[in-house]
Amino acid sequence: MAEKRDYYEVLGVDKKATDAEIKSAYRKKAKKYHPDLNPGDAEAEKNFKEVNEAYEVLSDADKKQRYDAYGHAGVDPNFGAGGGAGWGGYTGGFGGAGVDLNDIFESFFGGGFGGGTRRADPNAPRRGGDIHIGITISFMEAVHGCTKTVTYTRSENCPDCGGSGAKKGTSASTCPHCNGSGYIMEQQRTPFGVMQNRRVCPHCQGKGRIISDPCTTCRGSGQVQVTVKKEVNIPAGIDDEQSLALRGQGNAGANGGAWGDTIVVVSVKPDPILTRNGYDIYVTVPITYSQAVLGAEIVVPTVDGKVQYNIPEGTQSGTRFRLRGKGIKYLNGRGRGDQYVTVNVEIPKKITREQRKALEAFDATLKDDNYEQRKGFFKTLKDLFDGDKDKK
Question: What residues contact 39, with CB distance under 8 A and at least 6 apart?
C-alpha cells in the first residue's frame, strides 16, 4: 500500500495555518480536482479524494490535534482518544512513589504528554464523520436557485448485523485482556525506575470488545459503503465556493452515535457577459459613436432578461449607470443588489470616403468647448510648459 502524503502538504498549507486558511485551501483544491471539471481523469479523481480526506481531518479540532501529535496513526480508527500506541500515560513506579509521569511533564511544559491520561470509552456513542462533496452549477442557477441531485458514497450500519459487527444471532464479548477499556498496561524499566506504559490493546485493537464470529457482510466492521442519491435545494443568491450542509446525511455514527453531515461545496460557472461582485451585477455594453453623441435607447442584459435603457446625449465612453434592484437576491433574506452598466464607445475601424468627408465637415463645426477633457488636458499642458519657461 502506498504511503499517505502529509495532509498539510495535500492542501498546500503550513502547519500553523488558521481554520480559515485551511478551508480556503480546501475549496481551491477541491474545485481544481472536481470530477465534473475533469471528466475521465483518474488522477484528478484520486487527488479529489485525497483532498477531501485531508480536509476531514484538519477541519476537525480533535482529529487535527491527534494528527499533529501522531501523524496518520493518530486518526486511525484503532487509535485511542487518549494517546497512541506505546504512549498515552504512565502510572506508578517512579521512585516507588506511584507518580504519574504525565503530571511530571505537565509541571514542566504546561500540558499532558501524549494527549493526557484519560481515554474515552471505546464503546461510547461516536458521531459519524462528515462528507465533503462538490457540485457545479451555472451562473443563472446560482442567481435564481435550483434543485440538483448529488450522488456519493457513505458509511451506513450493516443491515445484517445492525452495526454490531457480529454475525446475526451472536454478539461481541468484552475483551478479557483489557476488560473493555481498550488499552492495557505494561511495565517498562526506565532510568526513573519501573513504570507502567499504557498502549492500545492488541487483542481488540482498542475497541474493548472481541467478535468471535464476525458478520460476513461487513467483515466485522459494523458498517458498509452505500451509494446514495440526495436532492440539494440550492437557494437563490448563492455564490461561488459557498457551501450547504445536508444535516445527518453523512457517515453513520458508531455505537448508536449521531450521523455526520454532508457538506456540499458549490462551484459557479462564470457568465460570458455578466459579472458578479457580492450581490451586485456588472456589465459593459458597447455603443456606437452616434449613440453616444445623440443619446439612444439601448438594450441591457440583466439576470431577469433584457431591459431598455435611455442614455443621454453626449455620453462619454466609460460612463457607468446604476439600475437599482436589478442585481442578485440576498441569500436567505429580503431585497436585491443593483446592476451597474458601463458603456464603451466603439470607434469604427473602417469608413468610406464619403463618410470621411461628412465626418470632417461635422468636426469643423465643433468648437473646443465641446471637448471638455481635451480642453482641460491642453490647458494643464500649457501651464506646465509656461511654468518651465518662467524658471529659465
Answer: none
Rounded Cα distance, 122 and 77, in Å: 11
C-beta separation of 123 from 238 below 8 A: no
Q: Which of 235, 268, 264 is nearest to 136 (CA)?
A: 268
Q: Are 339 and 316 in contact (CB under 8 A)?
A: no
Grid coordinates standing for 71? 501523524
pLDDT tens-digit series, residues 8-63: 999 999 988 898 889 989 988 888 888 777 777 888 888 888 988 899 899 988 88
Nearest CA among 194, 204, 261, 266 for reference residue 233? 266
pLDDT digits (tens, 9 = 90+) for 329-387: 998 778 999 999 999 999 999 999 999 999 999 888 887 777 777 778 877 887 787 76
What residue type is 142 in one-letter code?
A
| 70 CB neighbour count, 10 Å cutoff | 20
The identity of residue 105, as a single letter, is F
SS3 185: strand
pLDDT digit string (tens) for 253-280? 988 899 999 999 999 999 999 999 999 9
Domains and CATH numbers, the chain: 275-347 (2.60.260.20)
pLDDT of residue 259: 95
CA 241 to chain centroid, in Å, comes to: 6
Cα distances (angstroms) measured from residue 263 to each of 26, 57, 242:
12, 14, 10
pTM summary value: 0.62
C-alpha–C-alpha distance, residues 392 and 379, integer Å: 20
Amino acid identity at 108: F
C-alpha atoms less than 13 angstroms from C-alpha of 207 in its C-beta half-sphere: 19
Q: Return the DSSP state at 295.
A: -
Task: Give me the residue label for grid cell 439612444.
Answer: 296
Residue 325 in contact with residue 316, Cβ under 8 Å? Answer: no
For position 302, what pLDDT does the model report? Answer: 97
* Rounded Cα gap, residues 357 and 355, in angstroms: 5
Contacting residues for 246 by C-beta, under 8 A, at least 6 apart: 230, 232, 261, 262, 263, 264
What the block records as the C-alpha cell of 128 is 459519524
